[in-house]
Amino acid sequence: MKKFICIASLFISALAHAHSEVPLKPEHGGTIKEAAAGHQLEVTYSANALTLYIKDHDGNKLSSDGATAELIVQHNNANTKVQLKPSGSNALNIKGDFAHLSGAVMIVKYSLKGEKLEQARLSLK
C-alpha cells in the first residue's frame, strides 16, 4: 500500500509541474496542428488566399513580424511551393487561386524572427 501511495504521489507531483495542456481549437475555422517546437499552426484557405496563423503552446498569438513561411502543397500528385508573407498580428498569407485544396497535404516550413527553422505536416479539411 505504501508503494502505491508513493507512486501515486510522484505521478500527481509530475502532473502539477507539467506544462499546461491547451486543447487545439482552430480560431479561424482551419486545420490546426502543434509542431514539434510547441507552436500551434492553423492553416486556412479560401478561393483567393492561403493563411498560416501561429500561436505558442498555450494558445497565445506569436508575432508574424520578421517571420518567414513556405508551404509545400501536395495535391493531385503535384507539389507546389508557396512563400507566405507576414500580414499582421500572428498571420502570414499569400493571395492566389486556392479554392480546390480540400484533402491536400501541407508541409509547413516556418521561422519566427530570431528563431530556427521549424516544420510540420498537416492535411487540410
Automatic annotation (TrEMBL):
<feature type="signal peptide">
    <location>
        <begin position="1"/>
        <end position="18"/>
    </location>
</feature>
<keyword id="KW-0732">Signal</keyword>
<protein>
    <submittedName>
        <fullName>Uncharacterized protein</fullName>
    </submittedName>
</protein>
